[in-house]
Amino acid sequence: MGHIKKEGLYLGIDVGSVSTNLVTIDENGQITAKHYRRTGGRPIQSLTDGLKVIAEQCGNAAIKGVGVTGSGRELAAVIAGADIIKNEITAHAVAAQAIVPGVRTILEIGGQDSKIILLKDGVVCDFAMNTVCAAGTGSFLDRQAARLGVPIDEFGDLALRSVSPVRIAGRCAVFAESDMIHKQQCGHSIEDIVNGLCEALVRNYLNNLAKGKEIHGPVVFQGGVAANKGIAAAFEKALGLKLTIPKEYDVMGAFGAALIARRKMKNEKDPATKFNGFDAANSTYETRSFECSGCPGLCEVVELRMDGHVRARWGDRCGRWSSTAAESLKTAQ
């Protein structure tokens, strides 16, 4: 009997401040496994736990390539062994294009940050990120939902039941909260207040990120907040455009990283992956940072140790520390 060759998979990893997401795709770019978990301020733990979960979902399929993205991408690249490291803008754009070819605008809202990406002829032509104002992110909704005593997963349905919208000042999370309390005291219904909060978040997002930008359809809405029907409805009302929300809205960064890895490995003459294997999840990792006083730059250098040995250093602009880490790794091998 001939041996049936099991097709390989490509792994995408997105380590962010709020969530760590892992996705595997097959040769055709279809998602075969996915895992979303809260980072909880412990990116290494979150990543190693995530690798264990995705390993179970993959069975004994071979990993042929690994792509990493997100704010913790350097960390993920060393621990998992990455073939390619990409920023979030590129990863999200690649993922959205795979689902909606010809997409022109990507709205992405996560727990701690949000971004807008504009494309023209399949190329990113403009983008903006918000990492400073809480009123344009998911954590703002979480906080207000808790204050109102409303489960966040019911937030969107409540907003859709609103009959007379209430305008809530959404320029800043602090003002929005005091304004919301004032509206409650005035006797407005919870549905109208929740809808007002959704519209305030959308107004904040568009004023901060989309000011002066022309938004064209098709529009894709992704990130954790895309699950909120109230926000999606508020965007459609504000933009006068229909939104597409991908089924994998919460893991689009990891999906994009996996697609980028697949493309890279298919173009390699010798497509040997740098993947460390799922066993990497069982090692002990620790990080420390120190300030380099070698020049006036005073770079903060991050050092990652695996089982007591230095595996990588990054953060130095001149390469003094990162290059020595790379050299010592070569000699150790």
CATH topology of the largest domain: Nucleotidyltransferase, domain 5
* Beta-strand content estimate: 15-25%
Mean pLDDT: 88
Strand order of the largest sheet: 3-2-1-4-5
Class by SSE composition: alpha/beta
Whole-number total of structural domains: 3
Count of helical stretches: 10
Determine the N-to-C terminus distance.
39 Å
CATH architecture of the largest domain: 2-Layer Sandwich
Helix content estimate: 25-40%
User: How big is the Rg?
Assistant: 22 Å
What does the model show?
By secondary structure, this protein is an alpha/beta fold. The chain has three domains: 9-94 and 253-282, Nucleotidyltransferase, domain 5 (2-Layer Sandwich); 101-245, ATPase, nucleotide binding domain (Nucleotidyltransferase, domain 5, 2-Layer Sandwich), CATH 3.30.420; 285-332, no CATH class. The chain has helices at 43-58, 73-81, 88-99, 138-148, 152-160, 173-185, 190-209, 229-239, 252-267, 320-332, and strands spanning 9-15, 19-25, 31-38, 63-69, 84-85, 105-109, 114-120, 123-130, 219-222, 243-244, 285-291, 300-306, 309-314. The strands form three sheets. A five-stranded mixed β-sheet has the order 3-2-1-4-5. Strands 8-7-6-9-10 form a five-stranded mixed β-sheet, with helices on both faces. A three-stranded antiparallel β-sheet has the order 11-12-13, sandwiched between helices. α4 packs antiparallel against α7 and α5 (152-160) crosses α8 (229-239). It is globular and about 65 Å long. It starts with 8 loop residues before the first strand and ends with a helix.
